Amino acid sequence: MNDHAENSKRIAKNTLMLYARMLFSMVVSLYTSSVIINALGEVDFGVYGAVGGFVAMFSMISSSLSSSTSRFLTFELGKGDTQHLKAVFSTSLLIHIVLAVLVFILAESIGVWFLNNKMTIPAERLYAANWVFQASIVSFMLSLFSVPYNASIIAHERMSAFAYIGIFDVVIRLGIVLFIAFSPWNFDRLIVYSLLVVALGIINQTIYLWYCRRNFEECQLRISFDRTCWKEMSGFAGWNFIGCTAGLLKDHGVNILLNIFIGPVLNTARSIAGTVNGAVSSFAGNFMVALNPQITKSYASGDHTYMFSLVERGSRFSFYIILILALPILFETEFILDLWLKQYPAHTVNFIRLILLLTLSDILSNTLINLQAATGKIRNYQLAVGSMLMMNFPLSYVCLHMGFPPESTLIVALFVSVCCMILRLWFLRKMVNMSMRHFLKYVYLNVWIVSLTAAILPTILHTSLHAGWQRFLILVPTSICWSILAVYFIGCSQQERVFLNSKIRNIKQKFIR
User: Fold this and answer.
1) Which sign does the torsion angle of CA 170, 172, 173, 179 carry?
2) I want to staple 267 with a disulfide (CB 3.0 to 4.6 A). Which of 46, 302, 434, 445 is the partner?
3) Which residues contact 340 (CB under 8 A, 6 or more apart)?
4) Model's pTM, two decimal places?
């Protein structure tokens, strides 16, 4: 019990560190997004998003290895096996070096051909698009080298490093955006922006490498061949490749479809929606980054009771965090966009609303995905869930080919998201004896009852008041407060309310002192 209490304190501390970074990043990022869209223009910003998204398609390989690296490092820390931990890190770093060379060859051959022959880019901006493509390749290769180091920071739960480096990144990125927007010199803003972002990436990855080599003894490259380690990691990553491919086709693949069928302006609309969604989902994402290592370590140590409680509470509370923030945005999307950007492409409002709903659906599966990865037995799971997730791409293609509006791609994603969650629960019931009925009743049913309750008062205000500052200033704080009450009285158990009350009292006492 003392260990569980200590783990809970660590999760809370790490979450607060990540939230400090996130709050600062969110405010600055929303401002910089507005400035860079105006500085580059809708077409160039859409080109940047589409080309960068295409390069990210190559990250399907690295994403599978990233999940593998994080899982194995965290698992070995949970077991306390230092020697095997060193072997895992060295193996993963060697794999990523080889992978970087492979990605470079694929990107410079297939990637360049696809960019210049298949993507919808204005002829006069094709030269700049090729610069963006090359810059994106360099950024991606840098991110490959950093994967084992970043995974080590997460496995050791040193979230303060992410917080400080993240704040540094945001400050420098703000400087880049202001330079692009207000520089008196005449230059191609899209090309210079992409090159400066690459330079920032080099600085960030250098800092991560220095920090890890200084603080973690396993973060040293040792040229050796541990056959067992290579076999375990490559097998895990190979099967995980299916799920990562499906996830990238859902996001970046569909983004490319929108570019081919409609054009780069719609990529701008989706990028704006992604920015808003990223700001909201980062609240829950930081909570999950702090929570996930504990799920893996509790599985490695055999503490399944604590593990199940983390999975269920993690799903519920990450959903609640996003719900509280997303609800006022769902009601006041148009007003917020008018206030933030003033001008924005068609479909942006619908994209934001649908992406937020999709995030609410996907967030319920995050702890399930982490628990599945912790078991290491993912072959059948990835074959089933990955195949279902891949249906996003062909179904979206069919919808666009038949002339359905671009919003249809997100409706497809919502349907597939629910199906994937059911499949994940079914597999976990077989593998770790997790109760599917219990999760559906105490998590899934619970969060939707809370959601419907939380939406009642904002709906009344939205329909009874005229659009404008008055409705916005009344609806937003009312929605947040009403949602918190719904979460507290309906979403939390008696034990959780007692815990929250004690924390509130402690905060009050510290404030009084």
Assistant:
1) positive
2) 46
3) 30, 34
4) 0.70
